[in-house]
Amino acid sequence: MSEKEEDLRRFKFKWTLPRTIVQLFSLLGVNAIVFTQVYPYLNLKPISFGLPILASLNSRFTAVYSSLDLLQVELSQPQFPWIVLGTIFLVGAVVGRAFCGWVCPIGFIQDMITTLKGRLDFVSPRTQKTARKFKYLLLFATLLTSGTLGLALYLGVGSQYEDALGVFASGPFMAISPDGTLFGTVPTLVSMARENFSSFLARPPTIQEFLAQLNKIPALLAVRILILVGLFAAAWKIPRFWCRYACPTGALMAVFQKCSLTGMKRDPVKCMKCPHCEVKCPMQISILDLPWEKFNDPECILCMECVDACPHGSLSPRFP
Q1: Which of 134, 120, 53 has the alpha carbon at shortest distance from 88?
Q2: Contact call for residues 19 and 303 (beta carbons, < 8 A)
Q3: Interior CA angle at 286 toward 276 and 315, to 5°?
Q4: Which segments within the chain are labelled E, that is strand?
Q5: What is the pTM of this model?
Q6: Per-residue buried b or exposed e for 28-47, using 16+ beta carbons within 10 Å of the residue's own CB
Q7: Alpha carbon of residue 291 to chain centroid
Q8: Is there a cis peptide before residue 18, judged by omega within 30 degrees of 0?
Q9: Over the stretch 207-246, which tens digit does the pLDDT of each residue have?
Q10: What integer is the mean pLDDT of 99-116?
Q11: What residues form DSSP beta bridges with 317?
């Protein structure tokens, strides 16, 4: 074999760079913060059907809303969410959880935190199996609350239930979702601080005044900030922590991932049973224990990290 042929044989397409580019453009496109700062009078009109990612209705910068947020709002109004459910079914049937790995802004931020850290840390299989059930419980609680409220309002007996839920009536998860805090609340707080910065310099507050202002912070806002900070800290400790254990949107799409047309396959001839693919998987999936013909693990976000990590080229995406 010639040297040129040997070089061609060794060449292997890497998914990391194109996926990072797609994630970056998705971050800018979904939230559009950069564009609204450059063009303050830009009139954004979010698309109506939503996507299975974290993109909050609580952010005025959002150009594409989360399917789960729209689902909560329409169920609680009450309206039957035909378009939202149709989008979820279509995306789930074709690509499963691929939007988690390629489009979701919160997923991209977690990937960047892991990249800065420089290594992947993993939890015990027992802890992993138990902890990932939490996102399904959160999804169930979210849909149960919105669904029962919508049913009660439809029957004309839900006004007291709606009043009792308060800010959680329009969407229980939407009220605490970290994407709404990061891309909606934080920019608003920064803008307010910038407007009051000159007066702050002219007359710095006393300690008593500062503590008095802290006491005026709403409890829900404090909780949302704590959740956001916790997300960053947890993502530093465990790759894709939010996607693994806490994201109800991920739980919703995991149901479709099991039977989606897009999956992964492993060539049994090329596979040497080495651990490289499992070591690089940010979702800590036991890839070597899955069927080689085609596997659609519910935790798989189709990030292709395992494909890039395999030195033998035994892993590849499969459709259908």
Answers
A1: 53
A2: yes
A3: 50
A4: 47-51, 64-66, 263-266, 315-318
A5: 0.89
A6: eebbbbeebeeeeeeeeebe
A7: 27
A8: no
A9: 776 667 767 778 888 899 999 999 999 999 999 999 999 9
A10: 95
A11: 264
